[in-house]
Amino acid sequence: MQSTLRLEKITPENLDAATGLRVRPDQEHLVAPVVKSLAEAYVHPGTAWPRLVLDGDRPVGFLMAFFDIDWRGDGTDLRSGLWRLNIAAGEQGRGCGRFAVESVAAEIRRRGGTRLTTTWHPGEDGPGGFYLGLGFRPTGETSGSQTVGELDLRAARPACGAPGREGRA
Questions:
Q1: Tens of pLDDT along 95-144?
Q2: Using CA atoms, how far apart are residues 41 and 59, in angstroms rounded to an integer?
Q3: CA 107 from chain center: how many Å?
Q4: Distance between CA 167 and CA 7 in Å, rounded?
Q5: Structure letter (DSSP) for residue 127
Q6: 163 — pLDDT class (breaks 50, 70, 90)
Q7: What pLDDT was estimated at residue 57?
Q8: In the chain, how long is the greatest CA-to-CA distance?
């Protein structure tokens, strides 16, 4: 089966599809629901980059990236990365998450960035294995109770397709 993964901006036409996405029940404690992410995007419009992940016309996930946040709060460490990743329960294990991360990496590169930062809940039930498998390395930092990881975009290259293609509404 040919995959036609792509990103779309969140619009009035696809809002219900985005907010209707659900991760597996055992993962709900690991990631905020899409509606919370969209509320955060609304109050951080210059930083947040929310996108619906589609396979053809079928919603399969949601991501929200962030760009140029002042990580330490003192202006010395601007970072960009993946803020949220929600892949629908029935769509996991098909490459949708990889596509989402690679799409964020492509957008950061397009903007001149060289590293992708993300956080994850540690532990056996968390997504650490997924991120480590994509080449992320823990920085030794934490953000709240989450592990901070980074992917060096100077070395990493997309492994599938042409991430970052974004449909226009």
A1: 999 999 999 999 999 999 999 999 999 988 899 999 999 999 999 999 99
A2: 19
A3: 11
A4: 6
A5: S
A6: very low
A7: 94
A8: 49
Q: How far is CA 48 from the centre of its chain?
A: 11
- The amino acid present at 128, given as its one-letter code, is G
Whether the Cβ atoms of residue 54 and residue 67 lie closer than 8 Å to each other: no
Helix (H) or strand (E) holding 103: helix 96-110
154: its two tokens: 């100077």
Residue-averaged pLDDT of the chain: 91
What is the β-pairing status of strands 146-152 and 58-70?
Answer: unpaired
Residue type, 49: W
Give 142's contacts (C-beta < 8 A, 6+ positions apart). 148
CA distance 120 to 156: 20
